[in-house]
Specification:
Elements lengths: L1 H18 L3 H26 L34 H20 L7 H17 L7 E3 L2 E2 H22 L23
Antiparallel strand pairs: 1-2
């Protein structure tokens, strides 16, 4: 997920720069879709077992029995936390929050920064029920990346909200559509 978001962020920045499209408005437009896509994508994780939780005695556990799933063989037949379901539910909630916030007069770029902060916090805490290799400080790779992105996004959020030169955009319901024509070729 992080590779897709960071790579997509860089790709969008290059595309916006190349075609003279407002970058902050663009990433704000994309933010709700990222949360929705991540939530939908977790259905695949449920099916193929590539994002498994730690063993649990919860009655809501997943038990993978197919040896062709991505879950380690030592966890076949073992009840594990339904990590993808937790992540899916929280991503759908984040999607709803971002749709709600789109209607508020926020400076451009704030919605995307909120997405990064919220997703990072969610991913950091959810990873405690996910079984992955510990990277350092007792944290998994996803948790370390989440912490770094949350710090960067909080700094960006503080800058965007504090900067006097930014004019908040009007709520979505009052905005008019803008047609951007891309050059041919």
């Amino acid at each position: 997920m992080y590779g897709a978001v960071v790579g997509g962020f860089i790709g969008v920045w290059i595309g916006c720069w190349r075609y003279n499209v407002p970058f902050r408005k663009t990433i704000d437009a994309v933010a709700p879709g990222l949360a929705l896509a991540q939530g939908i994508g977790r259905f695949g994780c449920i099916v193929n077992g590539d994002a498994w939780g730690a063993p649990t005695s919860s009655p809501f556990a997943f038990i993978y029995t197919n040896p062709d799933s991505y879950i380690p063989n030592r966890l076949l037949g073992v009840p594990t936390h339904p990590y993808p379901v937790y992540d899916m539910a929280l991503n759908f909630a984040l999607f709803g929050l971002l749709l709600y916030l789109r209607r508020k007069p926020l400076p451009d770029g704030v919605l995307f920064a909120i997405f990064v902060v919220a997703y990072g916090v969610v991913r950091f805490f959810l990873s405690f029920v996910r079984e992955q290799e510990v990277w350092f400080w007792g944290l998994q790779q996803a948790q370390v990346v989440a912490l770094v992105l949350v710090v960067v996004a909080l700094a960006a959020l503080a800058y965007l909200l504090r900067n006097d030169n930014l004019t908040p955009h009007p709520p979505t319901s009052k905005r008019k559509a803008v047609l951007v024509e891309l050059p041919k070729g």
